[in-house]
Amino acid sequence: MAGESAFKLTYATMFNPPEELHTRFEEALAQFHQNIGKEHAMIIDGKERFAAEKFEDRSPANTDQVLGIFQKGTAQDGLDALAAARKAFPKWSRTPWQERVRLVRKAAEIMDRRTFEMAVVVSKEVGKNRMEAIGDVAETADLLRYACDRMEAAGGFVTQMGRDPLVGYNSTNVSILRPYGVWVVISPFNFPCALTGGPVGAALVTGNTVVMKPATDTPWTARLIAECLLEAGIPDGVVNYVTGPGSTLGQAIIESPEVDGITFTGSYDVGMKIYRDFAAGRWVRPAILELGGKNPAIVSRHADLEIAALGIVRSAFGLQGQKCSACSRVLIEEPVYDQLAARLVELTAKLTIGDPTDRNVYLGPVVNKSSYRDYQTFVGELIEAGRVLTGGKVLTEGEFAKGYFCAPTLAELPFNHRLWKTEMFVPITTLGKVSNLEEAMKIANDVDYGLTAGFYGTKEEAEWFFDRIEAGVTYANRPMGATTGAWPGFQPFGGWKGSGSSGKNAGGVHYLQLYMHEQIRTYVEKA
Ligand code: NAP
Ligand code: MG
Fold it and tell me: Which residue, 23, 137, 273, 380, could crosslink 118 as a Cys pair with Cβ 3.0–4.6 Å?
């Protein structure tokens, strides 16, 4: 995209998408049938690796459609990938950082060329609408470039330190950040491109070698990322790609002493298990964990309610509520509650649901049978304990018959109900009435998570909100999304509390440093 287009593509662009995005997506969609149903290998040490057992990647919009056949990698495949990364590390880490930057930039350019082809795969395997799918891929190329830019801006993280006052000797002190070694990237289904490619890019630019393991629902997107990196000329073994169950292959990787650092993005439960298992190693190793969210939007009596309604609905139901940043709680001041609730219901009822590759569809299906069941269980609880304002049912007629389609749901629920604190990860958002902003803030912060948060109100109120909300990514008065839609270089992304371990956000100025440890080099000579 970059260079070719007259616009800068970000999630905010998608608010009012240029026509070119549609025409190019449609061209790629027309070509897609040529790629469907093929078998894809893992990539270890630059070679294709097949496993005895396979698994199918099916479309959640039509489960009859087998998108591709993938390898059910074993623990041994995981260990072989780590060994290949270990073997490649000395040379890659000694490759001048300028050369690593050049190769990663080249991979970003290749990804730019393949944006629409990759976006169709993302749309098909995740069930993302076309704009969200294009965004996921475009963001990945930008994350690769951003990592390169930061490496350059920091001069490779080589810093001259002070000269200590020695009598009869001269001393030179240099601080240098150096890669840890073999870096593992385990990614979730919902942003299979950005959350695989982003961490992989950071690890590579800083000189680590990588083993990536994508979610079993979305193996294809990650395979395409690996292809872009290899095509750019990144040497064999520097990037390895394995597929298979997290519980076996993933677990074997986590337990291996050959891992020097990890970036895991996924659920709180799996992330905390990885954190604890990782602690069984012989020394402390870095674990960048990007976990779940329970993201609130707070609406003041002074808010522009139309802007609030737009932003909340987009963030609640974009990607069917399956964003870590989805707006799942709305806390509204009493005087404007009825008016805003009515408008939210109205906008939600207008959202289009269907085949996510279709131009006019906003919501595709949820990703798999387990999410589909979760939705039905949660709706049961909402009906029992609260009041469903709109939605509240799965869609099974006609074109919906073969997919996991769920109606976007708004519900009222007493604040003491467990679903105010549980990440549901389906298209369900709860609304609550508060008597003042202090009460809203107390409820907003009273969860284990702290990922994103939104606010609608006056400028003074927004300052008050920024100061008190416990979250890593915060927005005020944004119609493009109350809690969603971060972009590298604009809104670095990461969470506090149970939402993230590092306290430094991806796509920001403090991120690359997480992938390196510091070495001080003191050289002394006689004066
Ligand atoms: P998940 O179930 O936790 O899985 C994430 C990844 O971990 C998958 O690749 C999975 O493989 C793997 N895995 C599972 N068990 C493992 C184990 N014992 N050892 C090693 N790896 C293991 O998450 P998901 O359902 O894909 O994604 C949704 C979650 O991700 C939500 O909680 C969401 O909030 C969170 N998320 C957070 C962020 C953020 O930036 N903070 C961004 C996006 C998503 P399998 O697929 O084979 O099980
Ligand atoms: Mg699938």
Answer: 137
